[in-house]
Amino acid sequence: MPLHDGPHRPGERRLSVNPFYGPANPLGDMAEAPPTHRLPGQPMAPSTAHQLVRDELMLDGNARLNLATFVTTWMEPEAGVLMAECRDKNMIDKDEYPRTAELERRCVAMLADLWNAPDPASAVGCSTTGSSEACMLAGMALKRRWAKRNTDRYPGARPNLVMGVNVQVCWEKFCNFWEVEARLVPMEGERFHLDPRAAAELCDENTIGVVGILGSTFDGSYEPVAELCAALDALRERTGLDIPVHVDGASGAMVAPFLDEDLVWDFRLPRVASINTSGHKYGLVYPGVGWALWRDAEALPEELVFRVNYLGGDMPTFALNFSRPGAQVVAQYYTFLRLGREGYRAVQQAARDVAVELAGRVEALGDFRLLTRGEQLPVFAFTTAPDVTAYDVFDVSRRLRESGWLVPAYTFPPNREDLSVLRVVCRNGFSADLAELLAQDLERLLPELRRQPRPFTQDKGAATGFHH
Hints:
Layout: H1 26-31, H2 46-57, H3 77-86, H4 98-114, E1 124-128, H5 131-149, E2 160-164, H6 169-177, E3 181-185, H7 196-201, E4 207-213, H8 225-239, E5 245-248, H9 256-259, E6 272-278, E7 290-294, E8 306-308, E9 315-317, H10 327-364, E10 368-370, E11 379-384, H11 393-401, E12 409-411, E13 420-425, H12 432-450, H13 460-463
Parallel strand pairs: 2-3, 2-4, 4-5, 5-6
Antiparallel strand pairs: 1-7, 6-7, 8-9, 10-11, 11-13, 12-13
Helix pairs in contact: 3-10, 4-10, 5-6, 10-12, 11-12
């Protein structure tokens, strides 16, 4: 199935051009209105093309009011200028753009230090287009290390990867694309993420690794990475199986080091082989940049690193993508330089304060039950209280959209498909003032929602608005 369906009758509709858009020949430009799904036959003035595209984009939602997404929706103007100056630099061409490559190396070194690598100088890492690509690379490294240890049985034996059912969809993609069995720990009761003991019980000689999530997208909670490593240590003592851990820190790896310094989840745990994060989430950079780091060179098999020389020098590359702009990497370095540890701590603390305060406001309304309170990731999830029968979370999401707020409603995975929730992601730029406006809009909706005869959503699957 195509990702985007084309029109049933190509070329049937044409774009409407306002007379004022044609700088030289308004009537001519109107007559030559371009088709929507075929290349126009002739060029048009740049101002006309610009205005046509801009008019259509006006129908998009306001990114600042999108409380579904984890990605950054605001940066300083200075960062925008740097990104514009670097958008034509190909990140892969390190010979032509050596200073951009140096900034990437510095970012990797800074993250290795932030995540307590035993020897930051020996840690290896790279930038990616996002944490999804970073997870793919980490999974590939886990599989290759397992295959090298099991050359007598592989490819006959089928490898597996253990993780909670709450993992981001990129892990399901990895298992599908690279033919790895996904062993998922289901949710149970009020536990909405991986259970360390259950994860260890799913491991066997074909397990390439276990994934721990530092900040579940479903509810914002941290998975207990230290307890997971302890359970796998005990497994090794019992069985001899020595299974590595990858920490998917898409969001939490840029929150916990600043706000939860006593939480041990990173390279301080010897079993943690690799960590990824999204620079474009709580790393505070526009999409798309991610980072993948390995404890040392041994954790990243050398045969996965390719070298090319046709761009002007011998360059190692480990990526699914090849050419990409250097703008986001430069913006990441700018943000690291601009904020430092104390700046990041202040930004993330402000986001958490907003989340905790807003969660309290929602709970005080009386119609909702909180699942999380924004005390780990600046994210909280809530559902309707048991005595609320006139409406459901999908009704709330739909009505908030009328005021411009994008608050996703979705159903949890096995074994809690019975639970549907709303989730609010508080990012830098979602201020206490905006949170107050959201609380007021939600409170204003309640009298009308309470008067409904029943929930109006018939197809919850179609209504689900779950976004990472």
